């Protein structure tokens, strides 16, 4: 990636959650820098509307939409297959889609929804696309985590929060999982020229939390004036996707373009391996990365 315009001109970028908030702001910026941007959305109307906005604000026609509901594992597989059929390169994969849920629900696959969308979908999508990332190297996997990781604890005996469910701690656990996944992936990708990093975007005024209605939606609405704009929140993601400064940097967690520390358990190789193996079981995936 040696293009002076941030290194991303002509590169192919896949961004989940590109229909709103941080993902949409990153899509606009990367399209404006000359990247071919493929955004993933789950709703056709919202997806088409976002596509138009990204094309217009990014002054680019190289923007495409693939529809997939990331809580359904077969749709994650179909998303990967559609992408692979249409694109012979993948330079940057941005796992950005995510949510918090005040009440416990399960996906059609019988998995707790926050875990399915925030952790298992990135895990599956990345593994499905790993060969294309390796063929396109140097390439980058970026996962949007959160400092909410500090509220989460990794309970391998109850990963699906069946015994006890509270929205924010469960969200925090999935964001901790994003970091553990990133560290483990970086380890497995050593020597391939595919890097894996994750980030905290700050507190960002987006649609985040609004799916819940009630007190949680009210909380996010009240906090919005004090939060970053989506464009500000997307800065570290855009930097990780495009900057020559992070060429070859892998296995790190960033905030405001600076490396930060995750919870101690993220540095435990055995815990990371356990999460990887449990994720393989929950998705039916066996990989030899
Ligand atoms: N906002 C913050 O303060 C903050 C702080 C730390 C970390 N983060 C992280 O930043 C990331 C982006 O969040 P945001 O703040 O930009 O929130 P957002 O505005 O709500 O955007 C979330 C995106 O994820 C998509 N999404 C959710 N569930 C999906 C599903 N089942 N299938 C496909 N796409 C799905 C949404 O699609 P729809 O448009 O169809 O809903 C939307 O495009 C998340 O991973 C979040 O955890 C946010």
Characterise the protein shown here.
The chain has about 290 residues and is an alpha/beta fold. It has one domain (about 10-280): NAD(P)-binding Rossmann-like Domain (Rossmann fold, 3-Layer(aba) Sandwich), CATH 3.40.50.720. About 40% of the residues lie in helices and about 15% in strands. It is built from nine helices and eight strands. The chain has an eight-stranded mixed β-sheet with strand order 3-2-1-4-5-6-7-8, with helices on both faces. Helix 5 (about 165-190) links the parallel strand 5 (about 140-145) and strand 6 (about 195-200). Helix 4 (about 115-135) packs parallel to helix 5 (about 165-190) and helix 5 crosses helix 9. It is globular and about 50 Å long. The two termini are about 25 Å apart. About 45% of the residues are buried. Mean pLDDT is about 95; it is low at about 1-5.
How would you describe this structure in keywords?
alpha/beta; 42% helix; 13% strand; Rossmann fold; 289 residues; single chain; binds NADP nicotinamide-adenine-dinucleotide phosphate
């Amino acid at each position: 990636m040696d293009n002076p315009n941030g290194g991303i001109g002509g590169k192919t970028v896949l961004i989940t959650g590109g229909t709103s908030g941080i993902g949409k702001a990153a899509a606009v910026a990367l399209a404006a820098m000359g990247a071919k941007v493929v955004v993933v959305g789950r709703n056709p109307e919202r997806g088409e509307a976002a596509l138009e906005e990204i094309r217009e604000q990014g002054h680019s026609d190289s923007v495409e939409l693939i529809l997939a509901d990331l809580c359904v594992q077969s749709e994650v597989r179909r998303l990967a297959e559609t992408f692979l059929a249409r694109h012979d390169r993948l330079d940057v994969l941005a796992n950005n889609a995510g949510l918090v849920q005040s009440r416990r629900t399960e996906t059609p696959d019988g998995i707790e929804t926050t875990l399915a969308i925030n952790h298992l979908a990135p895990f599956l999508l990345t593994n499905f696309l790993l060969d294309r990332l390796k063929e396109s190297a140097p390439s980058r996997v970026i996962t949007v985590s959160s400092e909410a990781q500090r509220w989460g604890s990794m309970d391998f005996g109850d990963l699906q929060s069946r015994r006890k469910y509270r929205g924010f701690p469960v969200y925090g656990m999935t964001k901790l999982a994003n970091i553990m996944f990133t560290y483990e992936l970086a380890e497995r990708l050593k020597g391939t020229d595919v890097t894996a990093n994750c980030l905290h975007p700050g507190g960002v005024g987006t649609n985040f939390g609004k799916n819940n209605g009630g007190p949680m939606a009210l909380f996010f609405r009240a906090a919005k004036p004090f939060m970053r704009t989506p464009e500000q929140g997307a800065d570290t993601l855009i930097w990780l996707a495009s900057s020559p400064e992070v060429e070859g940097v892998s296995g790190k967690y960033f905030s405001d373009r600076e490396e930060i520390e995750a919870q101690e358990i993220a540095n435990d190789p055995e815990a990371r391996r356990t999460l990887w193996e449990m994720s393989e079981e929950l998705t039916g995936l066996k990989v030899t990365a």
